[in-house]
C-alpha cells in the first residue's frame, strides 16, 4: 500500500510540474531491451508507444501539395496583392483583360510550384532509399533482416564495420575485448577523427546473438532532444532477481548517421527512432535572415503602392469632375447603360477606383521578385565555382548554404571572429614545459636525451635534484595519463596508411582535441611514451624503457565551464595495488585558485611569459587520495551520474568537491600557428572600413599576442584595458568614464571613420575586455542605482576603437556581443566567422554567418550561411564577391522600378486624353509580356555578369569597398533620381509621339494613325529606351550580354510582326492586325523612334559626363584609368593620373568616403606595385614586424 501511495504521489507531482510548465523539467522514457517485461517485483510494465524508424524529410504529400504550396506562396505580400488585382479584374468590368495580371502571376506560381515539387520529389526518393535499406536485428537468439523503417524502440541491432547506424543506439557489446568501438561522426558534425564509445560494463562480455538475447534489462532515459553531445540515462540490469543500476551518458550513445570504424561488429539497443533521432531533430531550419537590400525593396514597394493609390484616386476624382457637365456624361463610344446610371455614386466611384488600380498596377512588378530570386540562386554558384577559394590541401571549396544574403557580403561593417582554428591553424605543436620552475624545451630534447648543440641553452635542466626529479617524473606521468587520446597501431584507415616509420610498424595518436595529441607527443620526445589503454589499465613507457601500469578509475571530462579535466588512477605494481592519484590539467585561471602548494610564482611567471609570446598554456596539478577518500569520491560521482534530473548540475557540483586541495606540478606551452595570410586579410578588412573584433575563450595575454601577430593591433595602437583586474582596482563606473573621456574627441574634430590609414592625426585605440567584466557591463541597472546602464558608454568606447579583443568569452557571451552591436542605434551589418561548436551562437546571431572548415567539427559550417576553407578566403568573399553582388542587385532593383515607371506613367497621361475612360494605351499582349519577356533577361544577365571594376583592383585596394558601404546605392536620393528619370522618359515618349502625331500625315496613302498605332509607337520607344539605358550602364561585356540584349530587341520586333501579321482565330478582336507593319512603313515613325530614344537618354548621359568630369568618385577614376591603360594598371602608371583636379578638391558629392580626395591618394598608393627604388616612407609609416622567441 505504501508503494502504491508513493507511486501516486510521484504521478501527481509529475502532473503538477507538467501543468506548471517548468522549463527545467525533463520527462523520461523506459525502454525494454528485446521487448522483455521486467521480472516480478520490479517496476510495473507499461508499454509505451514510440514512432517507427521512418525518416520523413519531404515537405509535401500527393494530397496536400497543391493547397499547402499555394498557401505558402500566397503568404508573400506581392503574390497576394496580384491575386487580389486578378480577382478584381474577374469581378468587375476593368479596362484590361484578367490575362494581363493572371498570366504573369500564374507563371510565377507554377514555375515556383514545379521547382519546389521537384525538390520535394527528390527528397521522397532519398527517404524511400533510406527507409527501405535492410537492417540486421536479433530476435529469439537469431539474426534476421528487416527494413529500416520497421525498426522499433527496444530492438537489439547488429551493426558491422563501415555500416551506418540506423537509429540512435545504446552500445551493449562489441567485438573488442574492452567493450569499446570506434565511430566517425562526419555526417553529423564533420569530425573525421575516430571517437571512442563504451559498452555498458555489465553487458560488454555478451558477444554472440544468443548471449545478447539473454540480456534482461530496462533503460530509463530522457525524452529526445537535439543536442548531439548530451545524453542522460541509466540502465537497470536484472540478474538473479536483483537489479543493478549503471549510468549512461553520451559516451554510450551511437547516433544515427554515424559510421562504425575499425571494429568488426557491435550489438546495441534502439532508444530513439525515426524523427525522434538526434539527427532528425537537427533538421530544423534556421531563422530567416533578411538583407538590407530586401528591406529597401519593401520600402520602395510601399512608396510605389502609395503612388499607385494616388494615381487611381486622382483619375477617379478627375473623371467625375469631367463628367459633372451633363453634356459630357460619357463619350459616345463608351456610353453607360441604364443599369450603370442607376447605381449609387459611391459604388460607381469605388468600382472606377478599382478599375484604375488594375490599369496602373503594373507599376509594382511581380516579375522583380522572380528575377531577384533567380539572380541570388544562380549568383551563388559563382562563389562555389571560384578556384581562388579552393583549398588544395583540404580539397575543399566554398559552400553557400543560403543565397539570400549574397549582397549583404558587400555591406559588412563589423566582423566578429574566433581565434583558435579561425585566425590560427588549430595545428598544435608542443614547445616546452615548466616543472617547478625548470624549463624543458621540446626542440632540445629527443627521446629523453639532450641533443648535441643544446647544452648551452639555459632552459635545459640537467640535474634537477632528488626532489625535483620525483616531481618531474610525476609531471610527465600526469600528462601521459590525463587525456582521452586513443592509440592506433599501423593500419589502413579510410584508404590511408598510418603509423609507418622507416618501413616498420609503429603507432600514432588520435583524439578529438589536437591539444591533447600535441602534449602526449611532446611527452614522447621527453622520454615518456603513452602506450595504450587495455582492460581498464593505462600503460606508459618511461625513460628507462620500463612499462608502468595504472588502473583508470574515473575520468572527469573537460567542459567549457570548468575549463579543466581530471583522471583518477591507481598505480599497479608486482606487490599489489599502489597509490591513488587525481591528476588535473586545465587553464591557469581554473587550476591556480585550487592549488594549496607548489612553486606557484615560478610557474605563473612562465605561463604569463609564454602567453605574451602567443603560446597556449595549461597548468598541471595532482592530489594524492587515500582509499577512504577515493570511496567517498566514487560514491559522490556515482550518485551524480545516476541522476536523471539535473545530472549536469550535480556532476558539476561533484567535480568542484573533488578537484580541490591540488599540488601544482608545472605548466605546458603549445603553439598554434597563425593561418596563412590571416594578417593580410585583417589588414585588408581594416582598409575596407570594417571593424574587426576577436571573440575568444583564451586568456588575455595569449589572445593579445595573436592580435599583434595578425595585425589587428599594431605597435602604435594605444591599448585600453577593461578587465577584472582593473575593475577590482577601480570600480566599473570610474573605469568606463575614464576610457570614454580618453577616446571621445571634442566636437569639431575629425571622425575616426574618416581618418586615413596613412594619417598620424588620429590616435589608434584598441580595447581588451574579458568575459567577467562584459557580464557586469551587460547587467541591467538596479532600480536603486543612479549609475544607469553602462552598455551605451561601452558602445561609445567601442565605436571609437579600430579593433576590440574580447577574451575569456563563453559561447553565449559571443552571441550577446554580436546582438548588442547589431541592435545599436546605427544598426550596422555584422558578420561572424568561426570554426567550432562554440561559435554557432554568434554565427546564427549575426546578419551573415560564415563557418570555417576547420578541425573542430562541422557544426559551424552546418549552421552558417556560407562556409570557406580558410580565413584568408574571407578577403575575396567580401571585397570581390560581396562588392559585385551589391552593385548588381542594387542596379537590378532600381532598374526594375525605373522601367516600370516608364511603362505605366504614359498610361496615366493617356487618361487625360481619353476622358478618364480607363482605356489602355498598350495592347494586352504588350502589357503581359513587357516584364516577362521583353525586358527581363537583359537585367538578369547584367545582375549575374557585371564587373564595374576589375577584380584584381578590388583585391589590391580594399578602400573601394567603402564606395558601396551603408547601402549607398539604394538610398532615397538615388531612388528618387531613378524615379524622376523614369517620369521624364515617360513624358518624352508620350508627348513626343503625341506632338509628332498632331496635324501630320504619316502614311504614304494619306491615312492617319489610330490610337493603337499611337500606343505601339510609344511602346516601341519604351522598350528600346529602357534596354539602351542598361547598355549605357554596362561596363563588362561578354558574348552573353550581347546575345541577350540584342536578342531581346530582335524578339520584340519579331513578336510584334507576328502578332500583328496573322489573324489569330482564338481572338475575339484583331485590333493589332497590321498595326506594327503599318507603323514601320512610315519614315516619320522611324525618325520619331530615333529622336525620342535619344531625347530620353540624353539628360542621363549629360549628367554622367559632367559629374564624371568635375566630381568623379574613386570608382570612376579607376574605371577611366583602367580604360586608359587597357586593363593593365602597372607599377609604371603615373600616380598623378588618378588625382582629383585641384578645383574639385574642396567639393563633395555623395558620402564622405566616396568623394574624399585624401582617400583617393591612399588608393593610388595601394593599387600599384611599389618598386624597390621607391622609398616606402613616401607612402606609409614604417611597418613594425613582430618576432616571437621561445627563449627568454
Average pLDDT, rounded to a whole number, is: 78
What's the number of helices? 38
Q: Please give the number of β-strands.
A: 40
Provide the helix percentage. 40-55%
What oligomeric state do the depicted chains represent? single chain
CA-based shape: elongated
Strand content: 15-25%
Given helix and strand content, the structural type is alpha+beta
Biggest β-sheet: count, sense, barrel?
A: 10 strands, mixed
Low-confidence stretches: 1-26, 452-463, 491-505, 746-754, 756-760, 1130-1192
Radius of gyration: 37 Å
For the termini, the CA-CA separation is: 76 Å
Binding site for ATP: 418-420, 516, 558, 585, 616, 696-698, 808, 814, 838-839
Domain P-type ATPase C-terminal: 861-1113
EC number: 7.6.2.1
Membrane topology: Multi-pass membrane protein
Amino acid at each position: 500500500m505504501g508503494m502504491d501511495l508513493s507511486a501516486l504521489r510521484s504521478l501527481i507531482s509529475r502532473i503538477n510540474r507538467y501543468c506548471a510548465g517548468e522549463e527545467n523539467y525533463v520527462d523520461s522514457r523506459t525502454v525494454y531491451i528485446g521487448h522483455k517485461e521486467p521480472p516480478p517485483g520490479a517496476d510495473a510494465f507499461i508499454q509505451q508507444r514510440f514512432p517507427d524508424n521512418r525518416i520523413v524529410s519531404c515537405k509535401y504529400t500527393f494530397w496536400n501539395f497543391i493547397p499547402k504550396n499555394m498557401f505558402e506562396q500566397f503568404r508573400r505580400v506581392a503574390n497576394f496583392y496580384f491575386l487580389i488585382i486578378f480577382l478584381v479584374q474577374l469581378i468587375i468590368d476593368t479596362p484590361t483583360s484578367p490575362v494581363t495580371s493572371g498570366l504573369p502571376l500564374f507563371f510565377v506560381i507554377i514555375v515556383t510550384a514545379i521547382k519546389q515539387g521537384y525538390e520535394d520529389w527528390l527528397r521522397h526518393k532519398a527517404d524511400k532509399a533510406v527507409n527501405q535499406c535492410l537492417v540486421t536485428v536479433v530476435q529469439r537468439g537469431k539474426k534476421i533482416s528487416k527494413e529500416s523503417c520497421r525498426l522499433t524502440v527496444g530492438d537489439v541491432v547488429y551493426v558491422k564495420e563501415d555500416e551506418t547506424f540506423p537509429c540512435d543506439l545504446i552500445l551493449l557489446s562489441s567485438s573488442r575485448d574492452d567493450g569499446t568501438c570506434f565511430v566517425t561522426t562526419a555526417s553529423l558534425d564533420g569530425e573525421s577523427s575516430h571517437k571512442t564509445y563504451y559498452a555498458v560494463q555489465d553487458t560488454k562480455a555478451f558477444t554472440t546473438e544468443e548471449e545478447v538475447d539473454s540480456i534482461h534489462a530496462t533503460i530509463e532515459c530522457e525524452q529526445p532532444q537535439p543536442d548531439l553531445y548530451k545524453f542522460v540515462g541509466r540502465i537497470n540490469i536484472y540478474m538473479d532477481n536483483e537489479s543493478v543500476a549503471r549510468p549512461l551518458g553520451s559516451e554510450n550513445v551511437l547516433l544515427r548517421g554515424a559510421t562504425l570504424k575499425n571494429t568488426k561488429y557491435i550489438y546495441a539497443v534502439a532508444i530513439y527512432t525515426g524523427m525522434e533521432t538526434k539527427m532528425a531533430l537537427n533538421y530544423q531550419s534556421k531563422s530567416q535572415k533578411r538583407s538590407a537590400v530586401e528591406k529597401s525593396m519593401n520600402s520602395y514597394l510601399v512608396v510605389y503602392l502609395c503612388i499607385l493609390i494616388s494615381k487611381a484616386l486622382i483619375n477617379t476624382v478627375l473623371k467625375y469632375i469631367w463628367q459633372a457637365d451633363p453634356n459630357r456624361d460619357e463619350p459616345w463610344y463608351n456610353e453607360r447603360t441604364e443599369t450603370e446610371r442607376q447605381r449609387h455614386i459611391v459604388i460607381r466611384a469605388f468600382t472606377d477606383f478599382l478599375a484604375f488600380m488594375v490599369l496602373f498596377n503594373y507599376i509594382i512588378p511581380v516579375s522583380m521578385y522572380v528575377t531577384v530570386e533567380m539572380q541570388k540562386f544562380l549568383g551563388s554558384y559563382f562563389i562555389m565555382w571560384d578556384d581562388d577559394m579552393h583549398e588544395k590541401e583540404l580539397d575543399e571549396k566554398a559552400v553557400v548554404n543560403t543565397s539570400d544574403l549574397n549582397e549583404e557580403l558587400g555591406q559588412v561593417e563589423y566582423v566578429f571572429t574566433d581565434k583558435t582554428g579561425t585566425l590560427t591553424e588549430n595545428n598544435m605543436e608542443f614547445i616546452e614545459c615548466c616543472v617547478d620552475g625548470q624549463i624543458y624545451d621540446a626542440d632540445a630534447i629527443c627521446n629523453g636525451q639532450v641533443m648535441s648543440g643544446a647544452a648551452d641553452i639555459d632552459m635545459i635542466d640537467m640535474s634537477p635534484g632528488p626532489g625535483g626529479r620525483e616531481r618531474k617524473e610525476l609531471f610527465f606521468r600526469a600528462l601521459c595519463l590525463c587525456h582521452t587520446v586513443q592509440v592506433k597501431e599501423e593500419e589502413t584507415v579510410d584508404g590511408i596508411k598510418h603509423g609507418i616509420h622507416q618501413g616498420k610498424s609503429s603507432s600514432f595518436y588520435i583524439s578529438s582535441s589536437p591539444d591533447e595529441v600535441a602534449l602526449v607527443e611532446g611527452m614522447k620526445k621527453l622520454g615518456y611514451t603513452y602506450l595504450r589503454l587495455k582492460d581498464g589499465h593505462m600503460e606508459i613507457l618511461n625513460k628507462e624503457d620500463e612499462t608502468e601500469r595504472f588502473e583508470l578509475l574515473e575520468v572527469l571530462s573537460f567542459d567549457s565551464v570548468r575549463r579543466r579535466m581530471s583522471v583518477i588512477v591507481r598505480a599497479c605494481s608486482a606487490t599489489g595495488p599502489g597509490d591513488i592519484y587525481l591528476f588535473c590539467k586545465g587553464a591557469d585561471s581554473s587550476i591556480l585558485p585550487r592549488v594549496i602548494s607548489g612553486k606557484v610564482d615560478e610557474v605563473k611567471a612562465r605561463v604569463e611569459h609564454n602567453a605574451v609570446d602567443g603560446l597556449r598554456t595549461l597548468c598541471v596539478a595532482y592530489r594524492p587520495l587515500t582509499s577512504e577518500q577515493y570511496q567517498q569520491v566514487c560514491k559522490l560521482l556515482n550518485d551524480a551520474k545516476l541522476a536523471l534530473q539535473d545530472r549536469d548540475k550535480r556532476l558539476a557540483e561533484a567535480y568542484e568537491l573533488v578537484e580541490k586541495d591540488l599540488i601544482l606540478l608545472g605548466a605546458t606551452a603549445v603553439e598554434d600557428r597563425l593561418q596563412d595570410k590571416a594578417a593580410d586579410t585583417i589588414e585588408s578588412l581594416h582598409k575596407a572600413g570594417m571593424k574587426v573584433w576577436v571573440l575568444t575563450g583564451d586568456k588575455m595575454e595569449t589572445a593579445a599576442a595573436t592580435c599583434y601577430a595578425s595585425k589587428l593591433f599594431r605597435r602604435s595602437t594605444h591599448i585600453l584595458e577593461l578587465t577584472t583586474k582593473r575593475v577590482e582596482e577601480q570600480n566599473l563606473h570610474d573605469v568606463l568614464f575614464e576610457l570614454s573621456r580618453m577616446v571621445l574627441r571634442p566636437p569639431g574634430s575629425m571622425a575616426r571613420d574618416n581618418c586615413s590609414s596613412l594619417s598620424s592625426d588620429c590616435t589608434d585605440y584598441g580595447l581588451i575586455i574579458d568575459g567577467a567584466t562584459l557580464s557586469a557591463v551587460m547587467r541591467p541597472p538596479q532600480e536603486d542605482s543612479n549609475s544607469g546602464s553602462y552598455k551605451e558608454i561601452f558602445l561609445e568606447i567601442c565605436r571609437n576603437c579600430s579593433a576590440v579583443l574580447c577574451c575569456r568569452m563563453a559561447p553565449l557571451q559571443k552571441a550577446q556581443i554580436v546582438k548588442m552591436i547589431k541592435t545599436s542605434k546605427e544598426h550596422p551589418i555584422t558578420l561572424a566567422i568561426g570554426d567550432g561548436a562554440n561559435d554557432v551562437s554568434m554565427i546564427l546571431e549575426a546578419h551573415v554567418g560564415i563557418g570555417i572548415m576547420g578541425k573542430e567539427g562541422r557544426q559551424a559550417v552546418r549552421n552558417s550561411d556560407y562556409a570557406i576553407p580558410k580565413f584568408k578566403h574571407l578577403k575575396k568573399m567580401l571585397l570581390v564577391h560581396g562588392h559585385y553582388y551589391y552593385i548588381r542587385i542594387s542596379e537590378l532593383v532600381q532598374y526594375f522600378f525605373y522601367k516600370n515607371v516608364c511603362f505605366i506613367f504614359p498610361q496615366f497621361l493617356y487618361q487625360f486624353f481619353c476622358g478618364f475612360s480607363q482605356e489602355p494605351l498598350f495592347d494586352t499582349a504588350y502589357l503581359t509580356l513587357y516584364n516577362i519577356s521583353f525586358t527581363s533577361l537583359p537585367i538578369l544577365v547584367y545582375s549575374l555578369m557585371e564587373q564595374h571594376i576589375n577584380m584584381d583592383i578590388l583585391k589590391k585596394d580594399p578602400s573601394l569597398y567603402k564606395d558601396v558601404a551603408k547601402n549607398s546605392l539604394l538610398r532615397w536620393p538615388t531612388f528618387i533620381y531613378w524615379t524622376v528619370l523614369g517620369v521624364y522618359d515617360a513624358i518624352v515618349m508620350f508627348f513626343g509621339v503625341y506632338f509628332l502625331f498632331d496635324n501630320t500625315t504619316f502614311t504614304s496613302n494619306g491615312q492617319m494613325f489610330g490610337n493603337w498605332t499611337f500606343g505601339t509607337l510609344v511602346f516601341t520607344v519604351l522598350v528600346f529606351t529602357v534596354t539602351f539605358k542598361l547598355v549605357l550602364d554596362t561596363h563588362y561585356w561578354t558574348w552573353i550580354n550581347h546575345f541577350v540584349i540584342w536578342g531581346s530587341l530582335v524578339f520584340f520586333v519579331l513578336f510584334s510582326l507576328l502578332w500583328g501579321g496573322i489573324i489569330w482565330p482564338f481572338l475575339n478582336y484583331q485590333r493589332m492586325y497590321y498595326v506594327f507593319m503599318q507603323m514601320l512603313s512610315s519614315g516619320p515613325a522611324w525618325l520619331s523612334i530615333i529622336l525620342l530614344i535619344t531625347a530620353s537618354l540624353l539628360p542621363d548621359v549629360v549628367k554622367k559626363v559632367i559629374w564624371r568630369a568635375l566630381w568623379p568618385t574613386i570608382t570612376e577614376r579607376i574605371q577611366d584609368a583602367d580604360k586608359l591603360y587597357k586593363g593593365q594598371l602597372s607599377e609604371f602608371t603615373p600616380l598623378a593620373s588618378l588625382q582629383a583636379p585641384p578645383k574639385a578638391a574642396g567639393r563633395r558629392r555623395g558620402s564622405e568616403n566616396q568623394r574624399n580626395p585624401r582617400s583617393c591618394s591612399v588608393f593610388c598608393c595601394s593599387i600599384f606595385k611599389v618598386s624597390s627604388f621607391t622609398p616606402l616612407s613616401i607612402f606609409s609609416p614604417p611597418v613594425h614586424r613582430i618576432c616571437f622567441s621561445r627563449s627568454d
